[in-house]
From TrEMBL:
PANTHER family to which the protein is assigned, alphabetical: REPRESSOR OF RNA POLYMERASE III TRANSCRIPTION MAF1 (PTHR22504), REPRESSOR OF RNA POLYMERASE III TRANSCRIPTION MAF1 HOMOLOG (PTHR22504:SF0)
Lineage: Eukaryota, Metazoa, Chordata, Craniata, Vertebrata
A GO molecular function held by the record: RNA polymerase III core binding
Record-stated family: Belongs to the MAF1 family.
Protein name (record): Repressor of RNA polymerase III transcription MAF1 homolog
Organism from which the protein derives: Steatornis caripensis
């Protein structure tokens, strides 16, 4: 797609992430953009969006509420940052399926350690997903 202006992209990302986690995002927002800016220098970037059609969208499965995909390219630094996010309805997964997805995100070793340690964090993540569902 045609490169969007960085302020438009920042605002679009902020709106999407705020819709998913509400007020919790306000504390994260400055840290998120400071980290991105530190790595890629946003003011020097060309930004491209990837908007797949429904048939080729790798994240277009059942339960996907929205997603975004941006490439931040800094020619001077010779760096690319791929910034992607998606929101998934908590109602689209059973508890065991949500646990499997978390295992994939954490890596098998990390997930096993969390299970052995009696970590209950995965349950709270699933609950947060349900809360972020907009009807």
């Amino acid at each position: 797609s045609r490169p969007p202006r960085s302020l438009q992209v920042v605002n679009a990302v902020n709106c999407s992430l705020f819709s998913a986690v509400r007020e919790d995002f306000n504390a994260l927002k400055p840290h998120l953009w400071d980290a991105v800016d530190e790595e890629i220098c946003l003011s020097e970037c060309d930004i491209y969006s990837y908007n797949p059609d429904l048939d080729s969208d790798p994240f277009g499965e059942d339960g996907s509420l929205w997603s975004f995909n941006y490439f931040f390219y800094n020619k001077r630094l010779k760096r690319i940052v791929f910034f992607t996010c998606r929101s998934i309805s908590g109602y689209a997964y059973t508890r065991s399926e949500a646990g499997n997805e978390l295992d994939m995100d954490l890596g098998e070793g990390d997930a096993e350690e969390n299970r052995d340690a009696g970590d209950t964090e995965s349950g709270s993540i699933e609950e947060d997903r349900c809360v972020s569902v907009a009807l």
